[in-house]
Design a protein that fits this description.
Structural class: alpha/beta
Radius of gyration: 21 Å
Helix content: 25-40%
Number of helices: 15
């Protein structure tokens, strides 16, 4: 049956619900959802599980060869150079632009993995939380839901070398880090949640990880970069006699509160171990492709019942469509087969991807997102029924068309906590935020 252009359908765990629209009370979905709607196909907003906001300013600027064996490690040098130029004002301007782009694309929550803490020389700002406060302000001003993850970053490698001069602005001792966390957590509200990120096993010694976990509240989201690069795996084996995920699962209480970012290079035992733990894996396919990281073993992980979501990470792309599309395409290229994320014959790849990335949203963000159900956040997107892409659409192909049919923006309206922040594809403050971003980036890139 074709969908009339003025129909309203709402996505639920069971699929489309006809003649329904979310009813809102205090920023959450009220029970039951209201009949009627605004003439569109309503989906829960997509959670973005991994973001380094400042890197939006360098997108497209690391694509010239600097070494015959260019890799993540040579890209990191370019990242360090631009990171050294940020202050709270420029971080606010760049993050606000990024968050507008996320909202217009359909991301309504972002997990900000934030390690740009101090002044470029490593000294603290007068307000030690100034850089974090810039991100909070950008999120509040744009209307995106934020899970802020201040990063503990202590050493320059598994061998415990001190932070380099370029890394000093990232660093904390444990006492200072816990003070920062306490300051930020006191500011939590309906759309701000504060968790913690451990940068990586190479940046957090084993005893510091244990001490931090003992000191932190038990109910916060915990994120960590892990097993992104082959070199990281080799270094971990050399120093700790175990692979990164293997070591973490054996030495930390990894459970549903954890999100493992990338986890690209895994053995079969590690795949099964993550799935058993209940943790989420945050996959960032466009960044992982851009950096030459490798491909996550998605089919094996899905077969093991593992949880996963997506993030835009370095923001060379800011689009849930592209992350989900390339998650599937990477698997197709590797296996030389089609429809890899589908669970069985007749299953929709797009719907499987959508269900997967929504199912981990609340767990990874610590916020009531990922489903339009009573008591959950009133965060949703409305697809553009007037787009030619949806001509003759049927319920069973709407999601597949959204994800696998060209590159026209197909998100019409976006709501966060029941408040409309995007109308007809445009954020309410798009022009002013873009103007401020242009000034900030020109200054950041000036010689």
């Amino acid at each position: 049956m074709h969908i009339p252009s003025d129909a309203s359908l709402m996505w639920t765990r069971a699929g489309w619900r006809r003649d329904a629209a979310p009813a809102v009370e205090d920023g959450c979905v009220a029970a039951p959802p209201a009949a009627g709607g605004n003439g569109g196909w309503v989906l829960p907003g997509i959670p973005n599980l991994h973001s380094h906001a400042f890197q939006r300013a360098m997108a497209g600027l690391a694509e010239r060869q600097t070494h015959p064996q260019d890799s993540f490690w040579t890209w990191r040098e370019a990242m360090y150079r631009i990171a050294a130029r940020f202050d709270p004002d420029s971080l606010y301007a760049v993050a606000a632009q990024l968050y507008v782009e996320m909202l217009e694309a359909g991301f309504t929550t972002v997990c900000e993995f934030h390690y740009l803490h101090h002044a470029p020389d490593g000294s603290a700002y007068a307000d030690p939380a100034a850089m974090s406060q810039a991100l909070v302000a950008a999120a509040r001003d744009t209307g995106i839901r934020l899970t802020l993850l201040p990063v503990l970053y202590m050493t320059g490698g598994f061998d415990r070398r001190p932070l380099s001069a370029r890394q000093r602005r990232f660093g904390h001792d444990l006492e200072g880090f816990l003070r920062l966390f306490g300051t930020l957590r006191a500011q939590e509200d309906a759309t701000l949640r504060v968790g913690v990120a451990f940068h990586s096993l190479r940046a957090v010694p084993a005893e510091a990880l244990s001490a931090a976990l003992a000191a932190l509240p038990a109910d916060i989201p915990l994120h960590i970069h892990i097993a992104e690069q082959v070199g990281e795996v080799q270094d971990c084996l050399a120093v700790r006699n175990a692979r990164p995920v293997e070591w973490l699962l054996a030495n930390a209480p990894v459970d549903a509160g954890w999100t493992l970012v990338h986890a690209t290079h895994l053995t079969a035992d590690e795949v099964a171990g993550i799935a058993r733990s209940g943790a989420t894996v945050a996959l960032c396919p466009t960044t992982e492709a851009n950096l030459g990281d490798g491909l996550f073993p998605l089919r094996d992980y899905l077969a093991a019942g593992g949880r996963w979501g997506v993030g835009s990470d370095s923001h060379i792309s800011v689009s849930p469509v592209e992350e989900l599309r390339w998650l599937e395409y990477g698997q197709r290229l590797q296996a030389r087969r089609r429809n890899m994320a589908a669970g069985g014959e007749g299953d929709s790849v797009g719907e499987a991807l959508l269900r997967g990335t929504l199912a981990s949203g609340a767990q990874a963000t610590g916020q009531p997102v990922g489903e339009l159900a009573p008591g959950m956040a009133a965060d949703w997107i409305v697809l553009d029924t007037a787009s030619p892409v949806f001509a003759g659409a049927r319920e069973q192909d709407v999601v597949d068309r959204w994800l696998f049919s060209g590159n026209r923006p197909l998100v019409r309206d976006v709501y966060v906590a029941g408040e409309q922040v995007v109308s007809d594809g445009r954020h309410r403050d798009r022009e002013a935020i873009a103007a401020r971003y242009r000034v900030a980036v020109e200054r950041l890139l000036a010689d």
